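Fill in residues.
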């Protein structure tokens, strides 16, 4: 009978042909049950000779390579004779006949692939090769302590005991099969195999603490497991900053930066380093916390920390430090520029965060910028009046309204707002006035008469108001008749000259004021007017409202604010829906003058509640009746006296003058010429003056163009001894129109 046995080992198919009965001529060796046997199992080796073998019959069992005899048998009537003791005791030898001999053998592991035969003195049997199955008994993991740097490859070996067939090795990292990352070799000795496997795995810090082991098996029912080794993966520290970035701190405060490790192996013996990110070679501090007391703006920037262990140095943790500070403004000397040239005023603003910047000229906002480092104010064409200290204001979240003065000086020739001045003066009091001049650098001046000679007899001096503003003061206490006329103030500096013409004339009544606007309301009216020359003496204004050629109301006295200045006042107690005539009277000690008349109709009154209206009407009617009765009584009493009243000459400031202006509404005829009929007081003739033009005069050839004429007949005043009862109209008389002076006049009445 012929058969075969299949064995899978190391993934290969081994086929062994097994002879259950080996047929050979003369002698046959048979293994019962099989020559494919597990180690230490017992098999029977049976040697069968041909019938009637030739004597002497002696049978031996031999291992062929290397050749050795382990048992020899000699039959004797069904028993074995002359047999060595081990054959009997160890192999349980049997000689049942002269042709059959057998022994029982416990198969050792070294019989694997061993060839066994039996033979007589004359013949040799067939050869039987043993295949001994030796289960793997152990697998050893080396090294037992595994420390590997993260990112590197670990080399771990597992080796099996000698066995047959060769064992297969499976690798595990924790529960993960990683056999595909291994290689193996097989070492054979005495027919047995040792499997050696090498695990070549690249590991990271995530593998730290995991267990690695191997499992070996060469039979379906037998596996062995190695020692389980815990991986110690070494890696450099990982650090983070506990301080928020950007780290905002105010200048002067203490700044503290914190770093900490979140992972490291080993986590002892850690070295810390703090440095500016852009200068890593300069170590600022060793330690996890870095403190900067009284931090200054120059310490702003990026800071980094690192931690090092025996494996290496961590990646840097970076903090952006933002040192904030209040604004400061660059200081510079004054900027000097010639008139009409362009100039740029520039200042650098030092602040963090950036500042909002405003430029001011006094209280006037010139320019506003948001979040700037440098600010510029450009003047395209510099004027003499631009000489000033501009105010530069910078603000940020730390401080508001940090200011700095930016000085601009404009080189310019002397300039005055007035080039022609008319002075009203008196012989006993003279005159005193001042003239403001703008110039840079400081000018010089001379007082000249028409022939170019120096004007004497006038006390004068110049004061400095500002770097480019000067005031020339002129005073003369008395005047002779021949001292009226024109003189010139000649002013010069290195950038040019200017001439101011001064015309000294006798004092007189004010020049007529000029009404600009009349605004009527329901029971009041607002009047706006421009003042004129005050005649050389202080003037006041009164506004009158005329209805049916009678004074209906008048304003309180309004003081003069200066020549050619706007004035306004309000007249009350007017009737609704009524057309009035309004005019302004200017008065000084020499007399008065009146503006042109302007008409305006008050607005219509609207009613929304008739009960108060009816009550008010009744009350008004009763009041009107009472007023009529009182008026009739007074008129009758007044008519009882003589119409013509002779008065002695009175001085100003008496009680009579006060009473003269005490009532707005009572019609007293003896006062109409002085208060209510203003136009009747104006004389027909006024002095006429001609404007003096600077451009038409030369300093050395100044001439007098106009003689000061005497005034015509004067309006009857309170000083006159005879006052007649008024019989004419209260409207201004058309017989004496006033001629407006064309020059500029200055009040010189500075003495009482």
């Amino acid at each position: 009978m012929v058969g075969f046995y299949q064995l899978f080992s190391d993934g290969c198919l081994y086929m062994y042909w097994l002879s259950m009965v080996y047929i050979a001529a003369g002698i046959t060796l048979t293994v019962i049950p099989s020559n494919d046997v597990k180690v230490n199992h017992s098999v029977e080796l049976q040697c069968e000779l041909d019938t009637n073998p030739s004597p002497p019959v002696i049978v031996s069992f031999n291992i062929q390579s290397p050749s050795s005899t382990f048992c020899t048998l000699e039959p004797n009537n069904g028993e074995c004779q002359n047999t060595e003791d081990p054959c009997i005791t160890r192999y349980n030898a049997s000689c049942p006949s002269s042709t059959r001999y057998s022994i029982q053998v416990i198969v050792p592991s070294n019989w694997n692939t061993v060839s066994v035969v039996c033979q007589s003195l004359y013949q040799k049997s067939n050869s039987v090769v043993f295949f001994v199955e030796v289960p793997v008994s152990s697998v050893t993991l080396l090294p037992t302590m595994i420390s590997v740097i993260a990112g590197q490859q670990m080399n771990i070996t597992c080796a099996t005991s000698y066995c047959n067939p060769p064992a297969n090795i499976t690798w595990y990292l924790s529960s993960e099969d990683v056999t595909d990352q291994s290689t193996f070799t097989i070492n054979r000795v005495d027919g047995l195999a040792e499997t050696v496997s090498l695990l070549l795995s690249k590991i990271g810090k995530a593998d730290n603490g995991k267990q690695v082991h191997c499992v070996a098996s060469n039979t379906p029912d037998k596996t062995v497991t190695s020692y389980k080794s815990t991986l110690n993966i070494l890696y450099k520290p990982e650090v983070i900053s506990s301080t928020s970035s950007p780290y905002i701190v105010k200048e002067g405060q203490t700044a503290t930066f914190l770093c900490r490790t979140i992972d490291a192996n080993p986590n002892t013996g850690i070295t810390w380093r703090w440095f500016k990110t852009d200068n890593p070679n300069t170590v600022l501090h060793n330690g996890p916390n870095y403190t900067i007391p009284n931090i200054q703006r120059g310490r702003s920037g990026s800071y980094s920390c690192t931690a090092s262990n025996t494996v290496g140095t961590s990646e840097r943790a970076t903090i952006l430090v933002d040192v904030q500070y209040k604004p400061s403004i660059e200081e510079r000397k004054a900027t000097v520029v010639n008139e009409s040239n362009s100039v740029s005023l520039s200042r650098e603003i030092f602040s963090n965060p950036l500042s909002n910047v405003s430029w001011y000229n006094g209280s006037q906002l010139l320019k506003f910028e948001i979040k700037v480092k440098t600010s510029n104010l450009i003047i395209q064409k510099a004027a003499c009046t631009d000489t000033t200290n501009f105010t530069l204001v910078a603000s940020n979240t730390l401080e508001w309204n940090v200011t700095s003065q930016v000085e601009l000086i404009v080189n310019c020739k002397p300039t005055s707002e007035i080039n022609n001045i008319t002075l009203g003066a008196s012989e006993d009091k003279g005159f005193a006035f001042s003239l403001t001049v703008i110039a840079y650098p400081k000018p010089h001046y001379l007082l000249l008469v028409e022939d170019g000679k120096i004007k004497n007899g006038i006390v004068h001096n110049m004061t400095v108001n500002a770097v480019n503003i000067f005031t020339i003061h002129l005073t003369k206490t008395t005047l002779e008749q021949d001292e009226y006329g024109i003189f010139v103030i000649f002013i010069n500096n290195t950038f040019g000259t200017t001439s101011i013409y001064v015309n000294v004339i006798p004092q007189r009544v004010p020049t007529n004021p000029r009404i600009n606007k009349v605004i009527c309301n329901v029971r009041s009216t607002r009047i706006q007017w421009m003042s004129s020359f005050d005649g050389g003496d202080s003037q006041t204004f009164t506004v009158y409202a005329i209805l049916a050629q009678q004074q209906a109301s008048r304003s309180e006295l309004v003081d003069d604010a200066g020549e050619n200045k706007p004035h306004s006042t309000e007249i009350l107690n007017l009737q609704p829906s009524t057309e009035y005539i309004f005019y302004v009277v200017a008065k000084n000690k020499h007399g008065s003058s009146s503006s042109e008349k302007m008409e305006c109709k008050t607005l219509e009154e609207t009613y929304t509640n008739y009960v108060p209206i009816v009550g008010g009407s009744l009350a008004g009617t009763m009041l009107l009746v009472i007023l009529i009765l009182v008026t009739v009584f007074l008129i009758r009493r007044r008519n009882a006296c003589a119409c013509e009243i002779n008065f002695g000459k009175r001085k100003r400031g008496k009680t009579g003058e006060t009473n003269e202006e005490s009532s707005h509404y009572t019609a007293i005829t003896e006062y109409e010429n002085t208060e209510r009929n203003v136009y009747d007081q104006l004389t027909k003739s006024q002095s006429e003056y001609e404007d003096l033009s600077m451009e038409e005069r030369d300093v050395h050839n100044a001439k007098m163009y106009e003689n000061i004429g005497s005034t015509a007949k004067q309006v009857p005043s309170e000083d006159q001894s005879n006052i007649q009862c008024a019989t004419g109209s209260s409207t201004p008389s058309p017989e004496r129109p006033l001629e407006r002076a064309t020059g500029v006049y200055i009040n010189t009445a500075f003495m009482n």
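Helices lie at 85-89, 610-639, 655-660, 672-676, 678-681.
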